[in-house]
Design brief:
The protein is mainly alpha-helical. Helices cover 54% and strands 4% of the residues. The strands form two sheets. It has a three-stranded antiparallel sheet. The chain has a two-stranded antiparallel sheet with strand order 1-2. It is flat. The chain starts with a helix and ends with a strand. Keywords: Signal.
Length: 295
């Protein structure tokens, strides 16, 4: 009996020790799992809290003068486009989170949005100016900004939301054109995808050869806008180079070619308006706005 007890005690001590080890291991594993889960939750929360922000644009309607009845429909249509542009720009902010470099929001969304707004605002001013005094200074309402939250997420960039389309996003908006007085100049554009290694060249129809006789009073303004078309081509080509590898398969179309067309529409419209003040306004010039990408 005295010899059996020690054996029993040894077995009991061994059993208790083993159980304690199992319990301790379980606690360690559970603690690790909880820690991992907590870390995952924190990461998820951090990603959720890092919102893209909101684009804010100055209101245009309150700054307009009395609108002639003959211009009301066109003005309303363009005011509606400004609202649509804001919604599209905000959607693009969400869709492109994490894309591009520190200047992506400014280059692909805010800049194109401003250009689209300039075009829409210019159409509003032109519509009013046909039968009343053309409102001046409305272009100051084109620039938009990115809310503080979005600015932080986008590397402190300013953005625009409000009217106007996002230049980078849809190809709508008042983008400026890269059209040149030569026979449709070419600018850089790789294979429509930003991921392509090659940059390519942007090609636009020439505007100057399609213009009628230019009144002396309009010559300076026409020349200035033709110069802007040349500048726009150069800027679009430079953007092709600067954004190689950014965005998805439609990046070049949405962030460069679309906004470029909108900018060209705005510049071409200013040229037609300048000529139309003292001569017959040229028609059909908008067909020269679209540009293409060539390798």
């Amino acid at each position: 009996m005295s010899r059996a007890l020690p054996k029993y005690n040894k077995r009991r001590v061994g059993f208790i020790g083993g159980a304690a080890a199992v319990a301790l291991s379980g606690a360690v594993i559970a603690g690790s799992a909880l820690a991992g889960e907590s870390s995952d939750d924190n990461d998820t929360n951090a990603r959720t809290l890092a919102g893209p922000g909101t684009i804010s644009c100055p209101a245009v309607a309150p700054e307009l003068p009395a609108i002639p009845a003959s211009a009301q429909a066109e003005v309303d249509r363009n005011l509606g486009q400004l609202d649509t542009q804001i919604a599209e720009a905000n959607q693009r902010l969400v869709d492109t989170v994490g894309q591009g470099g520190p200047n992506f929001v400014q280059n692909a969304i805010l800049g194109p949005l401003k250009d689209k707004r300039v075009a829409a605002i210019n159409r509003i001013a032109t519509a009013i100016g046909r039968t009343a005094e053309r409102p001046a200074g409305l272009d100051s309402l084109a620039a938009c900004t990115l809310g503080a939250e979005g600015a932080a997420d986008a590397g402190g960039q300013a953005g625009g939301d409000g009217g106007g389309e996002a230049t980078a996003p849809p190809a709508d908006g008042a983008g400026q054109g890269a059209d040149q007085g030569d026979a449709g100049q070419e600018g850089g554009n790789g294979a429509g995808d930003a991921g392509n290694a090659g940059v390519g060249t942007i090609s636009c129809p020439a505007v100057a050869p399609e213009l009628p006789a230019i009144p002396a009073s309009a010559q300076a303004e026409v020349d200035r806008n033709l110069g802007q078309l040349d500048t726009q081509i150069a800027e679009a080509n430079q953007r092709l180079v600067d954004t190689v590898g950014q965005g998805g398969p439609n990046f070049v179309q949405n962030a460069i070619l679309g906004p470029l067309k909108d900018k060209r529409v705005a510049a071409i419209n200013r040229i037609a308006t300048a000529i139309g003040r003292t001569a017959e306004r040229p028609a059909g010039l908008d067909s020269l706005a679209a540009c293409t990408l060539t390798k």
